[in-house]
Inverse folding.
């Protein structure tokens, strides 16, 4: 649509800017403030410059949680995206069961994140949880509260359970948007089912898949509540991801300086991804 | 019906329902039974857990508090997002692209980064432990989301509609309320759904900004887990009840869900 | 090449149709001979796309049979019917080059690569796509993409019939003419049966050897463009073809004479009923209405000068009559009277012509 240039449009935008800025800029300024200062209490601050940034960037603790975060995000993407696409492909385009399916699939997305964590906690407990009992019943020694591998597996399974439906719904919407004529032409051309997927469906889902991948990447990068309620970050710190670590430092230890510096580094990484997201989206819309 | 095709969605849905079923199962058992015996269905079916929640103020207030701030947030977010989305959709103005990008970054902001600063900020303006505090805090990511979704829907409405209305003598507010909003009702529904959803599920900020008066159900639940030991049955019942509002909302907007996701702006 | 026969075809999109209105196609019996160019012409919703899809096999008819050269293909899937179809909007495989797009149908059928190359180059030449062969299909304009769609149908040598479902819908107006000419040229060159669905009479009349006019699920007339213009069998054909369409005016019979608004009218119809006034109409094209001092009086409402000719809107009692007169003809200002040229006037009962 052709837009007209009108500076008075700012009036319409002011309430949004005020509310978001209040929530975004002021806290951010606080964070920046803390990141370059040191305090020993009593509201007395000393300028420290980039000391906190250096400390964080060089700390093995930060490296460890960063690596854990990357491993986690990488794994869930590798599972959720193909699984989501597969489920979307196998659903019919219309019919009475479609809305039932969509509602049931959307349910995990609307559960408060702490309930998700608590639910999986109860579900996976080795002695009284259904999953825990089943796995131990198969002869595998499973206890996610004590074994790092089990904790990882459970956390990942929980995330797959929680968020795959987002990929399903996005992919399904993308698939439904493909006009019938493409499938008809493919029939006439004698294309195999694989060719239909590879040459028609996947390319036409490019936009929604980009969104799905980037959303999952970023949301999983910021994950806090579910793993925290499930494992507390443990056993030890084996499932302590970036957000969990940050909150421990900021709210637990009240180490304002390092927490602030870490926050800014964290935020910067997210901003970078955001910029990638935005550029890809805008380029796509122009096509 | 092609049976093979239905296999994957069926297994997937069963997988999704399993933990929920287990939660439901536990909610009808006493904590003793849960710890004592393992069974797929309650041996001694009891509604005691639900009774406790509905009668104990600390519990049901948790739900009321949560619903309160979520509804407040949805109303605030949508009210300010509508005019802003209109501006982005119809006009070019100084800094519009950068503003849009900045809004987007807030949607993607890690709550962990804001937990402590929010605590200090809202304490400083003496809004700590109020519903409005959480409602306002959630605006950080929900307003950009609402603007984004609404702008998408608004761009689908041709400008000629506006121009005709103005030529017919409508003032801007009257045009907006009587003509424009009815055309994008589906978009408002979708935006309201997602705003509700993301506010309802968010725990960290809601917990950080409240202590007693506006304590959300999420915080009440975690308290149970740590202080009174594991009151599992109660926890399960509380958890099950949090799923109910979500289920209701999805059911009502089920026809719009696909459209909303198709906008791709979640 | 094949002769296509449609026998007793009826189709409903509902699982259990009960009334006539439930059927998208009422009753079609048709025979389409080898090598001709057919147009399926009709307004939106008349069932032409349904019919097309039944012929191509994308749809199985509720009742009736489809025969290609005497063999029953009603239940044969599309892939085995050896047809090609071009859709309303261009369908191309975005990720492949133009060459690969054209080669796709051949490669899927296991044809040797050498043959594929020759064939694709041949077809590309026919469609003026030789210079774009290595480009990505997604980058072409709408008309280029439609050519690719068409090309995929032409590469296969075993194609019996090529079908077009309103293929020029998304093409820019100034390119429509070019593409239409190209289609006609290709038909003359290749001699394959082509069936072209459209709601645009210009497209139909310029492209086809035979036009099948459809209305509300039935075929109302099949004929050459000239036949349709001069001898419309149904009032819909009269009204739909021609610009402006035929005047259809209510009239009544008494004693074997046609009366229109109190005036006697002579027609070319011979088997006239002696009396009656239900659903009896007289049809006359605006081209054949003339100013005639011995005709009946009318009031001139409007005259549109279109350059080549003028269109006059006249009124007699409550009936509106359109006339086409020459560019330089004089329009009588006082007491204008008109008459209908008898040889071109016909009577219609229940919308069907009385010969």
């Amino acid at each position: 649509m052709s837009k007209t240039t009108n500076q008075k449009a700012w009036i319409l935008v002011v309430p949004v800017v005020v509310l978001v800025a209040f929530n975004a800029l002021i806290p951010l300024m606080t964070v920046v403030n803390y990141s370059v200062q040191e305090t020993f209490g009593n509201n007395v601050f000393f300028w420290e410059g980039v000391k906190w940034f250096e400390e964080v960037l060089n700390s093995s603790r930060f490296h460890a949680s960063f690596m854990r975060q990357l491993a986690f995000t990488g794994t869930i993407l590798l599972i959720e995206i193909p699984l989501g696409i597969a489920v979307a492909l196998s659903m019919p385009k219309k019919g009475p069961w479609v809305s039932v399916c969509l509602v049931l699939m959307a349910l995990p997305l609307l559960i408060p994140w702490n309930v998700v964590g608590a639910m999986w906690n109860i579900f996976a407990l080795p002695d009284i949880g259904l999953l825990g009992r089943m796995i131990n019943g198969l002869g595998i020694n499973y206890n996610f509260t004590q074994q790092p591998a089990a904790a990882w597996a459970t956390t990942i399974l929980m995330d797959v359970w929680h968020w795959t439906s987002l990929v399903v719904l996005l992919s399904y919407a993308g698939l439904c948007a493909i006009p019938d004529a493409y499938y008809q032409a493919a029939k006439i051309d004698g294309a195999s089912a694989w060719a239909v997927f590879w040459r028609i469906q996947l390319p036409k889902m490019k936009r929604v898949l980009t969104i799905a991948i980037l959303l999952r990447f970023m949301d999983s990068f910021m994950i806090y509540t579910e793993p925290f309620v499930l494992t507390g970050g443990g056993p030890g710190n084996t499932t302590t991801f970036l957000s969990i670590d940050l909150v421990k430092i900021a709210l637990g230890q009240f180490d304002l300086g390092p927490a602030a510096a870490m926050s800014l580094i964290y935020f910067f990484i997210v901003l970078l991804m955001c910029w990638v997201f935005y550029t890809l989206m805008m380029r796509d819309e122009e096509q | 019906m092609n049976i093979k095709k239905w296999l994957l969605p069926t297994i997937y849905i069963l997988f999704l329902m399993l933990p929920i079923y287990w939660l439901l199962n536990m909610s009808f058992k006493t904590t003793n039974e849960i710890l004592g015996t393992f069974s797929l269905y309650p041996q001694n079916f009891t509604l005691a857990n639900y009774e406790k929640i509905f009668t104990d103020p600390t519990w049901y207030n948790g739900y009321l508090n949560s619903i309160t701030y979520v509804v407040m947030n949805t109303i605030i977010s949508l009210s300010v997002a509508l005019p802003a989305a209109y501006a982005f959709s119809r006009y070019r103005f100084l800094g519009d692209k950068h503003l849009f990008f900045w809004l987007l970054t807030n949607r993607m902001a890690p709550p962990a980064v804001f937990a402590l600063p929010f605590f200090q900020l809202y304490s400083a303006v003496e809004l700590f432990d109020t519903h409005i505090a959480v409602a306002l805090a959630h605006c950080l990511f929900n307003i950009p989301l609402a603007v984004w979704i609404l702008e998408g829907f608004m761009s689908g409405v041709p400008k000629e509609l506006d121009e005709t209305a103005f030529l017919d003598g409508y003032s801007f507010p009257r045009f907006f309320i009587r003509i424009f909003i009815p055309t994008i009702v589906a978009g408002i529904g979708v935006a309201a759904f997602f705003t509700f959803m993301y506010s309802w599920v968010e725990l960290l900020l809601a917990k950080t900004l409240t202590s007693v008066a506006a304590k959300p159900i999420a915080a009440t639940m975690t308290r149970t887990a740590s202080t009174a030991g594991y009151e599992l049955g109660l926890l399960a019942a509380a958890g099950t009840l949090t799923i109910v509002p979500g289920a209701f909302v999805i059911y009502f907007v089920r026809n719009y869900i696909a459209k909303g996701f198709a906008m791709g702006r979640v | 090449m094949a002769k296509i026969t449609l026998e007793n075809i009826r189709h409903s999109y509902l699982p259990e149709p009960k009334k006539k209105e439930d059927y998208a196609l009422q009753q079609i019996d048709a025979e389409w001979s080898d090598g001709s160019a057919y147009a399926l012409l009709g307004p939106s919703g008349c069932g032409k796309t349904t019919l097309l899809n039944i012929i191509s096999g994308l749809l199985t008819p509720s009742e009736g049979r489809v025969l290609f050269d005497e063999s029953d293909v009603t239940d044969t899937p599309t892939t085995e019917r050896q047809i090609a179809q071009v859709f309303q909007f261009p369908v191309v495989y975005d990720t492949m080059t133009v060459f690969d797009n054209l080669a796709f149908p051949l490669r899927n059928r296991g044809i040797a690569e050498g043959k594929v190359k020759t064939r694709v180059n041949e077809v590309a030449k026919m469609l003026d796509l030789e210079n774009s062969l290595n480009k990505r299909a997604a980058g072409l304009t709408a008309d280029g993409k439609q050519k690719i769609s068409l090309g995929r149908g032409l590469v296969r040598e075993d194609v019996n019939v090529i079908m077009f479902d309103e293929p020029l819908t998304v093409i820019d107006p100034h390119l429509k003419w070019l593409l239409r000419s190209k289609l006609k040229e290709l038909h003359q060159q290749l001699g394959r049966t082509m069936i072209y669905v459209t709601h645009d009479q210009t497209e139909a009349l310029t492209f086809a050897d035979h036009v099948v006019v459809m209305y509300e699920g039935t075929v109302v007339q099949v004929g050459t463009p000239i036949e349709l213009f001069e001898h419309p069998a149904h009032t819909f054909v009269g009204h739909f073809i021609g610009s402006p369409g035929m005047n259809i005016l209510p009239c009544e019979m008494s004693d074997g004479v046609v009366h229109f608004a109190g005036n006697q009218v002579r027609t070319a119809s011979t088997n006239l009923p002696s009396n009656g006034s239900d659903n009896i109409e007289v049809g006359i094209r605006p081209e054949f209405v003339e100013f005639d001092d011995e005709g009946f009086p009318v009031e001139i409402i409007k005259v549109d000068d279109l350059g080549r000719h003028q269109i006059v809107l006249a009124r007699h009692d409550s009936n509106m009559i359109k006339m086409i007169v020459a560019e330089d003809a004089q329009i009588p200002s006082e007491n204008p009277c008109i008459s209908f040229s008898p040889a071109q006037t016909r009577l219609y009962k229940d919308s069907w012509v009385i010969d």
Summary: The longest helix of chain A spans residues 60-90.
